[in-house]
Amino acid sequence: MKRRTVLLGVGTFAAGTMLFGGGEAFTSVNADRGVNVSATNDPDALLGLVDTSSGSEIKGPSDTALLYEITDNAGVFSAGDIDVTVSRLIDQSGTEITDPPVQAAVSGSGTQFTVDISCSGDDSSLGDAYEIEVEFDAVSDSLSINATRTTGSFVDISCGFDYGDESNYRDQSSGDAIQPTDPSGTIENPSAVNQEDGNVSTAISSGSEEDLRVGFALPPTDESATTYEMRFVINRTQIGQGTFGFSLLNSSGQELTSRQALSVGDTTYSFTAAEQQNISNNHDDLYLIIDSDTPGSGNREIDIDYFELLAT
């Protein structure tokens, strides 16, 4: 069977089946001879599209948001046949961000699919509400469609990892991070470690003979990296005898790295080859444990400006 290319814009109609819901133009259509198409704002179109962006939001690099629902009324597409790309973001002042750090994924089966977006990494450059322009490219053996759509609602997007979120830290009185399961002491101002700006987060032991043990969930890192290092910027410690230290665990409590003693200043700590392999194997399931190891009593305090797991 021969194929033909039909270029249509808004308001162009052909006698026959409605092609793409959503009310905006599609760029091009390739169809088998005899398939007539038109653009229309109709979820029951050949490829029905429903904007579900109202109320959606992304709160960090591991979060997702539902953007569109798709109905394949022709029954010719699978999830793998539909590719969606985020081409630009437009904030409420009209400023455009091209090639944004946001990605789209299509999932579903049968005739029902969803388009979800997420951050493509930990990126603090986004932190506003945006209209989202996406490009659809649906291809089957008998039909291909290229279309561009812009959401009808502004979507709040923040791609920076927030250590102040209760799900991302844990001490003995607050925070819901999975590790450590045996916290001791408290973390004051945990969100201060989000940026290297001189503002500090202070971890304080509970005093007496009990040492400090608190933790932070880390954002996913690159599993294909060849080298991992842990960087700390520490402004002050109060400990007397003994040391503050850190180690990495996974959510099951497996020790991925040995404890290393922390020192004041801007310091980068390396890992053994076995530890680096452990980090790679648990790249999306990492927890930073900060503790003290002392023989005495009294408060132990450490002021942390910033920390980061480096992957190269």
What's this entry about, in short?
The chain has one helix at about 275-280; strands at about 5, 25-30, 45-50, 55-60, 65-70, 80-90, 95-100, 100-110, 110-120, 125-140, 145-150, 155-160, 170, 185-190, 200-205, 215, 230-240, 245-250, 260, 265-270, 285-295, 300-310. It has about 300 residues and is an all-beta fold.
Description:
Strand 10 and strand 11 form a beta hairpin. The chain folds into two domains: 3-159, Immunoglobulin-like, CATH 2.60.40; 166-311, Sandwich (Jelly Rolls). The chain has 312 residues and is mostly beta strands. The model is unreliable at 1-18, 23-28 and 33-41 (pLDDT under 50). It is built from one helix and 22 strands. The longest helix has 9 residues, at 273-281. Strands 1, 2, 4, 6, 7, 10, 11 and 12 form an eight-stranded mixed β-sheet that branches. It has one helix spanning 273-281, and strands spanning 3-6, 26-32, 47-51, 57-59, 64-72, 82-91, 96-98, 102-109, 112-119, 123-139, 143-150, 155-159, 169-170, 186-188, 201-204, 213-217, 228-238, 243-249, 260-261, 265-270, 287-293, 301-311. 3% of the residues lie in helices and 46% in strands.
